[in-house]
Write a structure and sequence with these properties.
Layout (H helix, E strand, L loop, with lengths): L5 E11 L2 E6 L2 E7 L14 E6 L9 E8 L2 E4 L4 H11 L9 E8 L2 E9 L2 E10 L1 E3 L2 E4 L5 H14 L4 E8 L6 E4 L5 H13 L2 E10 L2 E7 L5
Parallel strand pairs: 3-5, 9-12, 11-13, 12-14
Antiparallel strand pairs: 1-2, 1-4, 2-3, 4-5, 5-6, 7-8, 8-9, 10-11, 14-15
Helix pairs in contact: 2-3
């Protein structure tokens, strides 16, 4: 996926989880942050960030913050991007062979999953999670407690008993990482649920991406350490 009309800026502060103050061409500007996670290790004063101009003239903020530089590493932090790049990746035949249907936002039981898919006699559900938290080459999810994420894992496990396949895909919004693991320090219940789901047969994928300021594309699987 690509972004049109990307522009560089300098991060100043984040008054709340929805907006940030940035400097664009010497002018302080309020922008929308397309990620409601904590992102404290990313959005630090002085950090290089990249913005996309909104196409909605009635919005209070003219720009969306979509990427940030952390040291030498460029990280996409657009929370909507993982679903888009997963759909492109799966549609290109990388998820299951012979894919004939991929439908977004499908409800099953008391959960709404990111995708439902079919391929011949096979059918299943996928939940996609974006990963932006990195430390010493490893990447971790979540960066804040997520009861919704735990519920999704339980729901995926329930799908297996009804003859569906089930998968959770962690789209790592950066390149050249060593491994993915659940963030037990932040939310041990999520790690426990992920290990239980994997033991029951839920497929766990972790996929890194090629990132530029104006693009994101899934490239390679990375090892999953549970």
């Amino acid at each position: 996926m690509t972004y049109p009309n990307i522009i560089p800026a300098r991060f100043l502060s984040r008054p709340n989880r929805f907006v940030a103050q940035v400097e664009v061409d010497g002018t302080e500007t309020t922008v929308h942050v397309k990620n409601t996670g904590r992102c404290r290790e990313l959005l630090r004063p002085g950090a290089e960030v990249w913005l996309v101009k909104s196409g909605n003239p009635n919005r209070k903020t003219a720009y969306d913050l979509v990427a940030v530089k952390k040291g030498d590493r460029l990280i996409n932090m657009d929370a909507q991007a993982p679903n888009q790049v997963f759909a492109q990746w799966a549609g290109a035949g990388h998820f299951v062979p012979g894919l004939t249907l991929l439908k977004a936002e499908q409800k099953h039981g008391d959960s709404r999953f990111d995708f439902y898919w079919e391929a011949g006699d096979r059918k299943g559900f996928v939940e996609v999670k974006g990963v932006t938290l990195e430390a010493d080459g490893g990447v971790f999810f979540p960066d804040a407690p997520t009861e919704r994420g735990v519920k999704h894992l339980h729901g995926l496990t329930a799908c297996l008993s009804e003859g569906y396949e089930a998968a959770v895909c962690f789209v790592i919004q950066m390149a050249e990482v060593d491994f993915f693991s659940p963030n037990d320090a932040t939310h041990p219940a999520f790690g426990q649920a992920l290990r239980a789901a994997a033991a029951d047969g839920v497929r766990v994928l972790a996929l890194e991406c090629a990132v530029t300021p104006d693009s994101l594309e899934i490239t390679n699987p990375v090892p999953v350490r549970l």
